[in-house]
Here is the input.
Amino acid sequence: MTSYFSRKRIGAAVAVAVLVAGSVVPAFALTRFSRVEAYSTDRWTVWVPSGSSMVVVDGDGDTDLDCFVYDRFGNLLGMDDDSTDYCVVPIYAATSGNVTIRIQNLGRVYNEYRLSVE
Here is the structure.
């Protein structure tokens, strides 16, 4: 049988373990899988916390994808419009809130992609 003090120490150890484990996990992360048709644009509205975030689009390699990220007022926060379907867009949001992510397919076939925001 455990005493009151033993239970208290076990409870404190569990609380510390939860705090330590919680600090390793990012405070915000989103991953979605989708498909953008040929010559089309997908639009996502995503909540992000204030501060720095990273938007990553990883396509299937068939076409060129471009990515544009806008704040809630329509201001461009960042973009990646190179000739690949792998886009990395670092953004800085002054306040938490929704951003709009536009993923544009410049190719003549669909492209399956993974969108992640961290």
